[in-house]
Amino acid sequence: MNCGELLIIGGAEDKCLEGEVLNKFVELANRSDGGIGILPTASEIPEEVSTGYIKIFRDLGVDRVEVIKLDSRQDADDPEICKQLISFSAIFITGGNQSRLSERIGKSKFHHALSNAWHKGMVIAGTSAGASILGKHMIVAADTMLNDNKLKVEIGIGFGFLDDLIIDQHFSQRGRFDRLLSAIAGNKEIMGIGIDENTAILVKEGYFEVFGQHQVLVLDGRNSDYINITSSDNGSEELTLSGFNLHALTRGYRFDLLTRKLLMKKGIQP
After folding, report:
1. Which reaction does it catalyse (predicted)?
2. 234 FRET partner, CA 20 to 30 A, in 14, 60, 177, 207?
3. Of residues 170, 182, 209, 236, which has the active-site annotation?
């Protein structure tokens, strides 16, 4: 069986009956009858966050919606919780701090079970921090150096569902172009995907399609002809680069992750 779809959300998605992004997730989840498991581990207020998603998913017609409580590494290695995980048809990973997800779940039995379930067809969605964790690489932190306004980006290890990608969220709304560019400049094979709020990409079969209100930006330096990163004495980085490809996509457009090229909407000729 092919891997399940990944719905990767830029955060702040509409939680109402008309919300396109969560309606798409529920549509995918309802293809099987296992229901939705909510994973709020990234959040410091998991009960409050979970309550909002339980309400909207039930309002959208999902009968079974349950919270998967992982408060520690010990929980993430609990066979009963792993058994609960694989009973769902879809998992929704909420926002918060992606480092909490990595620290509590990364390389645990739960992580292994989640990966296996996805490879067997389970649908997985992640919003905000839950989006960032889905790649093999993720931005852990991006601090601005006070004396020269330059970024210092820290890269961590995500859940690894998508190779050679870094996903950033709340992209245009929080002005994250510079930090995503800095994150991929040191490795030409890694592609950066910045997803705006209330916007998502649905990844399946080697491509993604855009859903939602705003825009998705793809930064690709694989064919760049010049990259130079200079470190200053205070640890900040100065970038000189040329030949990066930039793609901006809106609702309905698709992008081939293998060839790294735009796929047009149905009915639109390139």
Report:
1. [L-4-(L-arginin-2-N-yl)aspartate](n) + H2O = [L-4-(L-arginin-2-N-yl)aspartate](n-1) + L-4-(L-arginin-2-N-yl)aspartate
2. 177
3. 170
